[in-house]
User: What shape does this take?
Amino acid sequence: MKSKTKIKKQTRKKRNIELIETISLAKKNPNWIEIAHLLSKPTKQRICLNLEKINNFSKEKETIVVPGKVLSPGEINKKIKIVAFGFSNKTKEKLTKLKIPFSYLIDEIKENSEARDLKILK
Assistant: This one.
């Protein structure tokens, strides 16, 4: 795991203001430090997951955290909540249509500072 100093150095190279805010908020909270570590990686190494993979790796009533972007291929047939840094437009449409709750990482860090009942998919 990276130190807070290394995360800070890598964050300086970022230009996306929302990403910088999410990383700094996650870095301040020891329960979310792993998310800060994963988000501070170079863009090419950032995580992108399809709905199908999320469905395969999740169980009923879990909160799934994706420290990257969620893409639309696949379907979800479980009652789960998805928290991610970003969602494609098609994914948002699918999740809304299926009535699957989803939120952004920055909001979840503010609401759930203790990081309870989360499963991080890498």
